[in-house]
Design brief:
heterodimer; A: 502 residues; mainly alpha; 23 helices; 75% helix; 1% strand; B: 337 residues; alpha/beta; nine-stranded mixed beta sheet
Chain lengths: 502, 337
């Protein structure tokens, strides 16, 4: 059995005491930076990369850096749930229902569910990595620009589900998000768009600045504006742990999300960003109580958290099997490979089996460590909510500023954060929700980039989206999703019309 | 759960948080420092890399930063200031204190920026002092594994005959692969559809996946894929064949001597920096380039440190001015149609 041999090799490598130590260090650091808003895993890995040059064993270096990457996915949910401060695009989805749970005194349950869901997803994703990495990576290469475009269209259509209120307002938010995503230098011509002559805007608005603004800062403004919601938040810190019934409720969502996240994570063109949004949309769609979503549905926390952790791990597949980095964190890992004298490429898996399998095995070990690390911390985190607001709010604002600034040492990012804080507050007052805006902001550039690229390659022939089978299937699903989303609204309207007639 | 457990974890988390904060703070305040050129360096030196961490330029920087730090006796802290084809980071370095505590590592893009960016906020020649060249990374012409032509000669004919269907990938406006593509289409007298990607990683993924036809990119990015047979390689764009890919002919061998391009990297300091400091940096750079570890690491990537006579301010300044003139013309041609 090749697989068992490989796993045995991997575990014997990963369980060496120094590798265990670096794994623990990585996931602990990942949790810490995930918890701090703004300071994301990319910045941390970039900072720690030079330290790993001195390591004798390249496996230790990669195990630690990988640990930071998926550890941050655990930590990122903490501030999203407790303070509505998502530091990463995936955590923005968790914030929707997670923070509502926290406000109704169920912060502990939300945090525990996030950790357990992530652990289950991490375990399955490790198995996926071990069993199916090469064929999955090959299959993912069939995704070209046309396929990515159709996938993003499907994602945007499905994301209408992210909003719990008006569909029209959700659509408006998505469009606004897409427009915000166009700020910066156009990839194709280098033409600056909506930069108003500010060179710092050439690289576009920072995701963290927008996310921390519309979620975290807007949340603080909203709390200051309406003290009633504040008192409700502290007074009831009820059950810390999920009950048996709640655990049973999340089993199916976690499994679905893991499958979805594992598949999206493999796409080298950045499918991982869709994972948590897709899971949320699916869970809301098939839920028997969709009305709960947006008001503290436990599936809305368990699903996205599992999906993003699964995707964080399977996004290693293109790198390990083909030497292709799927996103900035993976590009940093390439840097780590090169510095350690390993040329990343399709041969890494056969030439460095101990390293690759050691890394894969360490991911499962890391997930165990993360659960052991995170569950005992929940009690502490929840108690943080009882910190008086006069202390908590300034601290959050300071952390948000430091975090946002530290990403690129760009003062404009901090100004942008403040601007989006005010905008987020105004939007919430108008009944518009920030989550679809963020999704539009993240997916808008992908949508445009791939639309234009697909048309460039096809020489302007738009039928390419329908003649390529994967793309055609995805677009058909998008149309179906749109019909399903709009139908109930039409039917309801008809019912209303009929009711008036009678 | 014992009541002691959370406290222990809290301590650990706080410690690690502090560690992360400390390293961030360190990175942020590394530029101050003394101003006496004779005593230089007394403090950590900030090296601005105007591209993202983990990229080829970043990798080259980190390779030489380590032995340079040993030679100078202080830390070299690499700062990635990404954006606008490297002009954001270079702009930041141009206005930094000229005290030797801010150094810029930039590549060929330093010479193309004036032609690419009409509103460039700095002058690559007037606002900087060159410290020395570091390496000249060769470029390779590669294609998807099932692209029809097999040799470089066949490739040239095929591209010329099928100019209206062949697609050429590059890693974004102003990137090395974009420049090489401009040079190639210029030399072959063709007008191809250029398909830009956001960086070399995604571009390479689409070449391996067979979504686009070909690309001209640095060996740092292509060597692994070439040796694994995931992509077809036609030629290397340097006068001589390279050690990492000895079977790969040069463009000159293939009858296209005009397609000569390498991604040269160099170190810069702000123009007002005292010569005494520049000398010390040049000295450290030369030591680093002679370091066997650096030579080996670069060889793995299909490149090599420049010779000692190239790692000087004079050679660097000469190349910079020559390249600004060369690329100015090619880019103007490319934009004119």
């Amino acid at each position: 059995m090749d697989l068992l041999d490989n796993l045995a090799l991997g575990f014997s490598e990963a369980l060496q005491w120094h590798n265990l130590l670096f794994c623990l260090l990585g996931v602990a650091l990942g949790t810490a930076v995930g918890v701090l808003p703004g300071i994301g895993p990319t910045a941390t890995i970039a900072l720690l990369l030079p330290i790993t040059f001195g390591f004798d064993d390249p496996t230790s270096a990669l195990i630690m850096l990988a640990g930071i990457h998926y550890g941050a996915q655990y930590g990122g949910s903490t501030t999203a749930i407790l303070l509505n401060l998502p530091g990463e695009s995936s955590a923005a989805v968790t914030a929707i229902d997670g923070h509502q749970m926290a406000r109704s005194g169920r912060a502990g349950v939300a945090l525990a569910v996030a950790a357990l869901g992530s652990f289950a997803a991490g375990t399955v994703a490790t198995v996926v990595l071990a069993v199916a990495a090469p064929p999955l990576a090959r299959a993912a290469l069939a995704f070209g620009a046309a396929e990515y475009f159709s996938l993003v269209v499907l994602g945007l259509v499905a994301s209408i589900a992210l909003a719990s209120g008006s569909t029209l307002k959700a659509l408006a938010m998505i469009v606004l998000g897409i427009l915000l995503g166009t700020v910066g230098q156009d990839l194709y011509t280098g033409t600056p768009r909506f930069t108003f002559g500010v060179r710092e805007l050439y690289q576009g608005l920072s995701f963290v600045a927008v996310a921390v603004g519309v979620f975290g800062i807007a949340e603080i403004l909203r709390n200051l504006h309406d003290p009633r919601t504040r008192t409700r938040m502290v007074s009831r810190v009820a059950n810390l742990w999920p009950g048996r019934a709640e655990l049973r409720r999340i089993v199916a969502p976690v499994l679905r999300a893991t499958g979805l996240g594992s598949l999206l994570g493999v796409l080298p063109g950045g499918g991982h960003v869709l994972a948590s949004y897709a899971s949320y949309a699916v869970e809301k769609r098939i839920s028997r109580t969709p009305g709960e979503f947006g008001h503290g549905a436990i599936e809305g926390v368990a699903g996205p958290e599992s999906a993003n952790n699964a995707a964080a791990q399977t996004s290693f597949i293109p790198l390990l099997t083909l030497g292709l980095p799927a996103h900035p964190v993976m590009a940093l890992m390439v840097g780590a490979f090169i510095i350690q004298g390993i040329t990343p490429g399709p041969d890494v898996m056969t030439e460095q089996p101990a390293l690759v399998w050691g890394l894969i095995a360490s991911m499962w070990i890391g997930n165990v460590l993360l659960v052991l690390l995170n569950l005992p911390l929940i009690g502490l985190w929840v108690r943080m909510l009882s910190v008086p607001y006069s202390v908590l709010f300034p601290v959050i604002v300071v952390f948000a500023c430091i975090g946002t600034y530290s990403l690129n040492q760009n003062p404009w990012d901090v100004l942008a954060m403040a601007f989006f804080g005010v905008l987020g507050f105004v939007l919430v007052r108008c009944g518009c929700e920030p989550a679809p805006l963020l999704l539009g902001f993240v997916l808008g550039p992908m949508l445009e980039e791939n639309l234009r690229r697909a048309l460039l390659i096809s020489r302007g022939d738009p039928t390419v989206f329908l003649t390529r089978p994967i793309s055609a299937v995805l677009l058909t699903l998008a149309v179906l999703a749109l019909v399903i989303a709009v139908l109930p609204a039409i039917r309801r309207k008809r019912d209303v019309v009929f009711a008036e007639d009678e | 759960m014992t009541p002691a457990a959370p406290r222990r974890h809290r301590k650990a988390a706080a410690y690690l948080g502090a560690l992360a904060g400390l390293s961030l703070a360190l990175a942020a305040c590394s530029s101050g420092g003394g101003s006496d050129p004779a005593a230089y360096p007394e403090d950590d030196i900030e090296v601005i890399v105007p591209f993202s961490a983990g990229g080829p330029t970043d990798t080259v920087t980190r390779m030489v930063a380590e032995p340079m730090a040993e030679e100078l006796g202080v830390q070299l802290v690499v700062q990635n200031v990404d954006g606008a084809g490297g002009t954001v980071g270079a702009g930041q370095a141009a206005t930094a204190e000229p005290d030797g505590y801010t150094v810029l590592m930039h590549h060929i893009g330093m010479s193309t920026a004036p032609a690419l960016y009409a509103d460039l906020a700095y002058d690559p020649v007037a606002d900087f002092k060159p410290v020395g060249l570091v390496t000249e990374v060769p470029m390779t012409i590669i294609a998807r594994a099932d692209f029809e032509p097999d040799t470089f000669e066949e490739f040239v004919t095929f591209v010329q005959e099928n100019a209206d269907t062949v697609t050429m990938a590059h890693a974004g406006e102003g990137s090395a692969s974009n420049l090489c593509g401009l040079l190639l289409t210029d030399a072959l007298g063709v007008d191809l559809t250029a398909v830009p990607y956001d960086g070399t990683g995604p571009a390479m993924a689409e070449i391996v996946g067979g979504q686009v036809d070909f690309m001209c990119d640095q060996t740092t990015n292509t060597t692994g894929q070439i040796t694994a047979g995931e992509v077809k390689a036609y030629a290397v764009t340097t006068p001589e064949r390279i050690e990492a890919l000895p079977d790969l002919p040069t463009t000159t061998e293939g009858g296209q001597p005009d397609i000569q391009v390498s991604v040269w990297h160099g170190l810069y300091v702000p123009a007002e920096t005292p010569d005494e400091i520049v000398e010390k940096l040049t000295g450290a750079l030369q030591v680093a380039l002679a370091d066997q570890g650096v030579v080996d690491q670069m060889a793995d990537l299909g490149t090599a440190p420049v010779s000692a006579d190239q790692a000087t301010p004079e050679a660097h300044a000469a190349l910079l001015e020559e390249q600004i003139a060369t690329w100015g013309g090619i880019i103007a041609d490319g934009q004119g149609g």
